[in-house]
């Protein structure tokens, strides 16, 4: 691909009846390749490019050439892609001569930066990313698609069969020839043609032909030289009463401005796989969070009012698409709320939801750490364009995960503001008798020492047992003591429970009862009370990972009203 090739292609198009506005000029640079600029202001929205039907490459042209119909049940563009590979790489193909000026403007296989064309060593820079998973998965799918079409036409040779057989046991990236001189029916030529379609084809629907499949595409010479920018307003169409395809822009351009197209709202992953480039700070970027769950669990979510869109039952996994606009999908909060439900909770409670967000935050933090360190690996790519693209991908994905993390924190703050739960800190501060008893027991002088010296859990257990012994004398939310009573009535204490609490218990009792009898010798301070207190804490307590503050939350169903009315409606009929 060179500027000269573009000029020859423009001449070819005009000589064959195309209209290309004289204000359009073409340029070439290393970062974005061939592109169009305006030589004079453009602001009228009029048709800028019109390409006659005979210069377009669409399904019927391929079918006429091969004298077969596009096979059903496969990629609707498979036959057309093979035809384009033949045009490009079979010098004996009778149609090649006519399309040669156009074919010469297309990128050569070795110049393409989409990861399908990277070496296995280069792909190491994407280790652990969805991008790598999709690259490998798509390559496998493409090999099957290619072999099905070359077998259907009976055009494969022994090398092709050999390649196909090898691909089942060898990494495809290790088998790929890195050459611009390919056999037209080889996998490499088909991979190139597939990329040509993903990066430059237009929907055939545009030509208002009767399309059997909305994914049918056609190649649109000259217009496919335009680069992409998000939000660019353009119009693609069909000239009145003809099969000629047209392009116009709705943007106002000054002389020297780039004439751009709009490939659609694409994430960097889509741009990299389909087009071999990525956009920094891409507003349409997404990150896919894949969660694997124990077998059978996915199926149980519907009964909890949680409907998941993108699930893979065979792998017991679910995908969530995160974006800057939706960094924290309500279904993700709901899922983690369910995963953190206690066996005594039948639906998501405010506690299980808050605890779920803490767990989710940990998962997201791991992702952020991964993308932070992975972006450093970019240095392993010698090709600077591929390095840049990897870095933008990693940075963009990290940005979305960071936004998810920030949203979790905002969500927690908002919920606490709404619920206004009582904090242990305030209860501790107002109960000076208890606070003083801990000064003697743990040598702490203030509440914060409980956190720094690691005595928080012990203090909480002592406090809960104290509440149960003091009854209504204490100025605390009644639900804590009610919960203690409920647990005490139903709990079955086993040997493991006793073993778990024994070291803690022995470290404090019976000394405490004799040292501070006004608290620790009143009521029941037996080990069972602490086992009950442990369950009370499980049911009512949540610690903010941000402030480390401990809150007591009255058990109540979480209202999904803010997460989406339809979830709320489904959940409203359920009780804790
Ligand atoms: C339809 S073609 C446009 C013409 C292309 N520049 C060429 O040299 O043939 C699409 C390709 O252009 C490049 N491209 C388009 N928009 C871009 C952008 N905003 N930044 C970087 N590369 C871009 C990518 O290589 C993409 O695969």
UniProtKB/TrEMBL annotation:
<dbReference type="Pfam" id="PF00856">
    <property type="entry name" value="SET"/>
</dbReference>
<feature type="domain" description="SET">
    <location>
        <begin position="22"/>
        <end position="264"/>
    </location>
</feature>
<dbReference type="GO" id="GO:0016279">
    <property type="term" value="F:protein-lysine N-methyltransferase activity"/>
</dbReference>
<protein>
    <submittedName>
        <fullName>LADA_0F00518g1_1</fullName>
    </submittedName>
</protein>
<dbReference type="GO" id="GO:0005634">
    <property type="term" value="C:nucleus"/>
</dbReference>
<dbReference type="InterPro" id="IPR001214">
    <property type="entry name" value="SET_dom"/>
</dbReference>
<dbReference type="InterPro" id="IPR046341">
    <property type="entry name" value="SET_dom_sf"/>
</dbReference>
<dbReference type="InterPro" id="IPR050600">
    <property type="entry name" value="SETD3_SETD6_MTase"/>
</dbReference>
């Amino acid at each position: 691909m060179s500027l000269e090739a573009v000029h020859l292609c423009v001449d070819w198009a005009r000589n064959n009846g195309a209209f290309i506005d004289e204000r359009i000029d073409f340029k070439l640079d290393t970062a974005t390749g061939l592109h169009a600029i305006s030589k004079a202001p453009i602001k009228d929205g009029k048709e800028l490019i019109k390409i006659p039907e005979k210069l377009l490459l669409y399904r019927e042209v391929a079918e006429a050439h091969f004298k077969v119909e596009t096979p059903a049940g496969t990629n609707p563009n498979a036959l057309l892609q093979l035809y384009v590979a033949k045009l490009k790489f079979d010098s004996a193909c009778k149609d090649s001569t006519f399309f040669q000026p156009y074919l010469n403007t297309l990128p050569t296989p070795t110049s393409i930066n989409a990861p399908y064309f990277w070496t296995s060593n280069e792909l190491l820079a994407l280790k652990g990313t969805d991008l790598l998973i999709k690259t490998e998965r798509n390559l496998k799918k493409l090999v099957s698609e290619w072999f099905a079409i070359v077998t259907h036409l009976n055009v494969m040779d022994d090398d092709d069969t050999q390649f196909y057989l090898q691909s089942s046991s060898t990494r495809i990236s290790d088998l790929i020839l890195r050459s611009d001189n390919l056999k037209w029916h080889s996998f490499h030529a088909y991979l190139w043609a597939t990329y040509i379609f993903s990066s430059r084809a237009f929907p055939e629907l545009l030509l208002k032909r009767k399309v059997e499949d909305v994914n049918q595409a056609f190649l649109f010479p000259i217009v496919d030289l335009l680069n992409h920018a998000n939000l660019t307003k353009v119009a693609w169409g069909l000239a009145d009463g003809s099969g000629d395809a047209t392009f116009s822009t709705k943007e106002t351009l000054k002389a020297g401005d780039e004439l751009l197209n709009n490939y659609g709202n694409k994430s960097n992953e889509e741009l990299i796989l389909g087009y071999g480039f990525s956009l920094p700070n891409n507003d349409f970027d997404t990150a896919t969070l894949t969660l694997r769950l124990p077998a059978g669990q996915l199926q149980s979510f519907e009964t909890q009012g949680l409907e998941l869109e993108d699930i893979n039952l065979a792998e017991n996994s679910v995908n969530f698409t995160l974006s800057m606009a939706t960094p924290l999908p309500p279904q993700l909060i709901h899922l983690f709320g369910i995963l953190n439900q206690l066996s005594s909770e039948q639906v998501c409670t405010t506690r299980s939801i808050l605890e779920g967000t803490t767990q989710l935050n940990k998962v997201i933090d791991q992702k952020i750490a991964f993308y932070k360190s992975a972006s450093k690996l970019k240095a392993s790519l010698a090709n600077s364009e591929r390095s840049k693209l990897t870095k933008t991908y990693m940075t963009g994905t990290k940005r979305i995960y960071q936004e998810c993390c920030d949203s979790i924190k905002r969500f927690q703050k908002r919920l606490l503001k709404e619920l206004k739960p009582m904090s242990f800190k305030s209860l501790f501060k107002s109960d000076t008798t208890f606070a003083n008893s801990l000064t003697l027991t743990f040598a702490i002088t203030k509440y914060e020492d409980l956190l720094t010296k690691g005595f928080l859990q012990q203090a909480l257990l002592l406090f809960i047992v104290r509440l149960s012994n003091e009854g209504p004398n204490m100025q605390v939310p009644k639900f804590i003591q009610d919960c203690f009573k409920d647990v005490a009535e139903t709990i079955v204490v086993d040997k493991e429970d006793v073993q778990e609490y024994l070291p803690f218990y022995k470290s404090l009792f019976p000394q405490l009862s004799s040292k501070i009898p006004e608290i620790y010798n009143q009521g029941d301070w037996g080990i069972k009370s602490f086992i009950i207190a442990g369950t009370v804490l499980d049911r009512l307590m949540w610690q903010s990972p941000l402030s480390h503050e401990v809150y007591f939350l009255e058990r109540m169903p979480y209202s999904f009203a803010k997460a989406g009315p339809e979830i709320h409606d489904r959940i409203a009929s359920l009780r804790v």
